[in-house]
Structures are given as C-alpha cells and as structure tokens.
C-alpha cells in the first residue's frame, strides 16, 4: 500500500500535537510538520521555521509531494489579537497566503484543510449558527480568520486547489494550558478566596473535546474539493460559561465561591453555538460527552499544574 504523506502546519500547537499523535498511529501515514518550536515524536520530520516558499520547498525535499495538508498555523488568541493586531495578521493571513500561493506555483494537488474559527460569526442571536449565516467578526482574530476563508475560496476557484474549511468552536481537552478549564483549576490550586471571571456567566459556548476535533479534521479533509466547502466544528450543545465553571469546580471538588464581574471582554460574543446539520449529513457526529471530557481534562490538569 502506498504511503500517505501528511503535512501539518502549526504542528507544535495544542491541536497540532494531538493530530500528529493520531495520524502516526496508522503505519501507512508519514507525517511532516512546520512550526516554530517542533518537538515530540517527529522532530526529524519537522522544520522549526515560519511558513514561506523557501521553507515549504525544504519540507517538500524532505517528504516528497504531500497527499494531505492540515493548515493549523495562525493566531490563537482574541485578547492578543486586540493587543497586537498586526502580529496576528502576519501569523494568520500572511502565513496562509504564503501556503496557498506556494501550492499554486507548485501545482500542488494535495487536499488542503484550513482551520478557521467560530469567531468569524461575531455576536449571533441564533441559537444554532449555520455555515451560511452572515459573518461579522468582533475582533482582529475573527477578522483575520474571515480573510483567510475568502482567500482560500478564491485560490480554490481560480487556481484549482482542493480544499475544505472547518470553523472550530471552543476546543478543550488534555494538553491545553490556557483558557477556562486551565485557568479555573489554576485558581483553585492556588487556594484563591474567590473565583472571579469576566462577563455575566450567562454567555453560551459550544465546547468540543479535542478527540472529537481531531476526528472531525481527519474526516473533513476527505471532503476537500474545488468548491471549498465550509463546515462547523462543535458539539452542537450550548453550555453557559457559569455552568462550565460549576462543572469544573465539581469535578475538582472545590467549593470556592464563584463570581462574575458583569463586564464583557472586548471581542467576546454573547453566544456561539454551532449548527451541525451540514457536517452530520456527511456522516460525522461528535462522540465525547462534556462530563466525560471534563473528568479526563481536570485529572490531567491536576497532574500537570504544579
């Protein structure tokens, strides 16, 4: 059987590490990566440099023509994008155009998956957001993800690239050392007198376990074509932020009082919950229950937070 050559940009990140771990379970897969601080099991197949034509050529010389490219590289923080929008632009938009244009010039026929974000939607009053909903990003992070979607669709249509776009919602799980689960556990561990959070706590989010996120990416890349379809990546189940914090505290065994300051953070939508009708119709559904996922994640945090 022919080996499948797989590229992962942003391979050192939270999602990239999990994707690499899953892909190498199949002996027919050869995984190569591009990232700024590569590590784990494939260092010899990884280039620790930014995305540009020269570095992509170096990766090509190491791997041969790729069959699949997972493009995970880019900015990953709404607050940081607000603090330094140009840096986020360079990480997300410039890097993506470098990859797309390299594929155009090399007439690369690999299937390409672009990871985008639910942040492109902005603040929606709809309970479950479909992919054809209007996009109105509230932050540079969301704006830049929206720009790479438009760029990708242009390249697919005009330069015959086969690609698919996945808009991930709130991905959580083992290995993520930031965001609400890690921060809540950290404050509990530090014996805070009170757990204080921004917002009202009534904000709704769609929490997707990292295991489901990886299964979705692997499933979705096979749907890449010249029409550059877009799919939501979530659980389809809303959960208020205060409920999430209460669940984390319950799993930990903490009884520290919880309070929300009522101040909405810049760039923070009130509700982001995915409609999964489109991806469900293709044959994919999430499997990990939020309670099961939290038990596993909080247990991992307890082992690693010191």
In short:
By secondary structure, the chain is α/β, with parallel strands linked by helices.
Number of strands: 13
Q: What share of the residues does DSSP label as strand, in percent? A: 15-25%
User: Can you identify the CATH class of the largest domain?
Assistant: Alpha Beta
**CATH fold-level topology of the largest domain:** Rossmann fold
- As for the number of domains, it is 2
Computed over alpha carbons, the radius of gyration is 19 Å
pLDDT < 50 runs, ≥5 residues: none
Strands of the largest sheet, in order across it?
A: 3-2-1-4-5-6-10
Give a verbal description of the structure.
This protein is an alpha/beta fold. The protein folds into two domains: 196 residues, NAD(P)-binding Rossmann-like Domain (Rossmann fold, 3-Layer(aba) Sandwich), CATH 3.40.50.720; 80 residues, UDP-galactose 4-epimerase, domain 1. Helices cover 40% and strands 18% of the residues. The chain has a seven-stranded parallel β-sheet with strand order 3-2-1-4-5-6-10, with helices on both faces. Strands 7, 9, 11 and 13 form a four-stranded mixed β-sheet that branches. Strands 8-12 form a two-stranded parallel sheet. Helix 1 links the parallel strand 1 and strand 2. Helix 8 packs across helix 10. It is globular, with a radius of gyration of 19 Å.
């Amino acid at each position: 059987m022919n080996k499948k050559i797989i590229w992962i940009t942003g391979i050192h990140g939270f999602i990239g590490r999990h994707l690499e771990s899953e892909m190498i379970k199949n002996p027919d897969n050869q995984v190569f990566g591009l990232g700024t601080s590569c590590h784990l099991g494939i260092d010899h197949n990884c280039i620790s440099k930014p995305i540009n034509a020269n570095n992509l050529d170096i990766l090509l010389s190491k791997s041969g023509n790729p069959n699949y490219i997972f493009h995970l590289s880019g900015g990953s923080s709404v607050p940081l994008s607000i603090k330094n929008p140009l840096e986020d632009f360079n990480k997300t938009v410039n890097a993506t155009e470098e990859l797309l244009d390299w594929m155009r010039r090399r007439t690369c026929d690999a299937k390409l998956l672009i990871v985008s974000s639910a942040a492109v939607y902005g603040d929606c009053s709809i309970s479950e957001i479909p992919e054809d909903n209007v996009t109105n990003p509230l932050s540079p992070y969301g704006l830049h993800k929206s720009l790479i979607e438009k760029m990708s669709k242009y390249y697919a249509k005009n330069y015959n690239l086969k690609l698919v776009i996945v808009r991930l919602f709130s991905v959580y799980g083992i290995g993520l050392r930031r965001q609400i689960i890690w921060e809540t556990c950290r404050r509990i561990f530090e014996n805070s007198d009170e757990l204080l959070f921004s917002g009202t706590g009534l904000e709704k989010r769609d929490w997707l376990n990292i295991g489901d996120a990886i299964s979705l990416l692997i499933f979705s890349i096979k749907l890449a074509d010249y029409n550059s379809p877009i799919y939501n990546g979530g659980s389809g189940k809303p959960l208020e932020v205060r409920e999430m914090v209460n669940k984390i505290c319950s799993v930990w065994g903490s009884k520290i009082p919880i309070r929300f300051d009522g101040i909405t953070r810049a760039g923070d939508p009130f509700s982001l919950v995915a409609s999964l009708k489109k991806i469900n119709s293709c044959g994919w559904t999430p499997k990990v229950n939020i309670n099961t996922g939290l038990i596993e994640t909080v247990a991992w945090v307890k082992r690693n937070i010191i």
